[in-house]
Amino acid sequence: MGGVAREIQRERLRCAHRAIAEADGARTLHEIGEEFGFPEPTTFSRAFRREFGYPPSELRRTGPCVPVPTLATPVHGGVDFLGVLRHI
Q1: Is the pLDDT at 61 greater than 90, yes or no?
Q2: Which candidate among 23, 40, 57, 82 keeps its CA 20 to 30 Å from the CA of 31?
Q3: For residues 80 and 25, what is the distance between their CA atoms, to the nearest angstrom?
Q4: Contact status, residue 20 vs residue 32, Cβ threshold 8 Å
Q5: What is the pTM of this model?
């Protein structure tokens, strides 16, 4: 389902999701994206939308009412990342 690099990117996006949801508005979305390895705002926005189905700006508007995904959140095929690691 994309290998280790894809799972690392997913975890970086989950961390960015939490940071945006918990942010007080002091940091821009670009700064948060950079913090988690996305130096280009468009790349961050596209990856975020592909992973969660909505852009980071929508999360910023709605705030913490959107659930924060975790490592145990199932990924494509119904398998979670921790489950994959257990089988390795």
Answers
A1: no
A2: 82
A3: 31
A4: yes
A5: 0.70
For residue range 13-60, list pLDDT tens digits in order: 999 999 999 877 789 999 999 999 999 999 999 999 999 999 999 998
- The candidate with the shortest Cα–Cα distance to 55, out of 46, 64, 67, is 46
Measured CA to CA, the distance from residue 65 to residue 76 in angstroms comes to 24
* Cα radius of gyration (the chain): 13
Query: How many whole angstroms separate alpha carbon 72 and alpha carbon 52?
Result: 15
CA gap 11, 21 in Å, rounded: 15
Return the higher-pLDDT residue of 74 and 55: 55
d(CA 33, CA 40): 8
The DSSP call for residue 72 is: T
What's the burial of 45, exposed, middle or buried (CB within 10 Å: 0-12/13-18/19+)? Answer: middle
